[in-house]
Design brief:
single chain; 328 residues; four-stranded antiparallel β-sheet; transport
Length: 328
Amino acid sequence: MAKLLEINNLHTYFETKRGLIKAVNGVSLSIEEGHTLGVVGESGSGKSQTAMSILKLFEKNQKIYDGEIKFQGKVISNYNAKEMSKVRGNDISMIFQEPMTSLNPIFTVNRQISEVLMLHQGMSKKEAEQHSIEMLKAVKIANPEQVNKSYPFQLSGGMRQRVMIAMALACKPKLLIADEPTTALDVTIQAQILYLMNELKREMGTSIMFITHDLGVINQMADDVAVMYCGQVVETAPVDKIFQDSEHIHPYTEGLLTSIPRLNTDRSSKLEVIPGAVPHPLNLPKGCKFAPRCKYATAECRENEPELKEVSPGHAIRCFHPVKRGKQ
């Protein structure tokens, strides 16, 4: 299957008075057409900054230092602001973490969805308004005509998230980036949003980059998984390889899996945790970035940095000792 998006050895840094913050530090990953890539890791692992790099949504002191991003075979990391404005919202759309801060509180839902359609699709105001209502129907919003005239503060969290999805999919993008889109929602609404995204993916054929810290969501949503730590991809594989069918695993992925609560676990047993915390990007450790927290680390791990190497077809791990040591 053809690759829709390819990221090769991407380095995105922040320039600060204290030095370079290596937010994205050599990331390589790809997304196939019609597939969902789940990107998982703790806060500060570089997931969101990788997504921002794809769309070049940068702060003033941030830029790509090395590597490339290819979309449909074109190197979009070299695009200027005008060229990127044609890609954003049209070919690649993004759903942000918190819809209340992403939607403009002083404009109606119709104004915000219609603006995307008039800008990228050349629709008239009337055509855009009608299509806006159709998109609200597509994301299963009751009373779409009424919601279309509403302001974000008049809607619930779940409805605001559906509006964000409607806006992101209005131009039928080839790639949808969803940055923790269910974090602020309760479990019932979260399940509805995940089901809706899968349904729309099947209907529209849109590829999805789904960013989350929740491996349970990844298991439900993704075809492939990329595990990130300290701005690097430490493991990438088909979803079944990560969760069950593999002789190899990165210790960080193992730690994430063993820290998930299970219904069949003895109540008296303690939940496993990964010791320590993600290091500050201005003070990254020598060698393997996960070595200070890894119970399997050796002298080699602390001195030398491992490369991302394939351990089986489609399964690559950044580790000197990636053998699975126990059942998850």
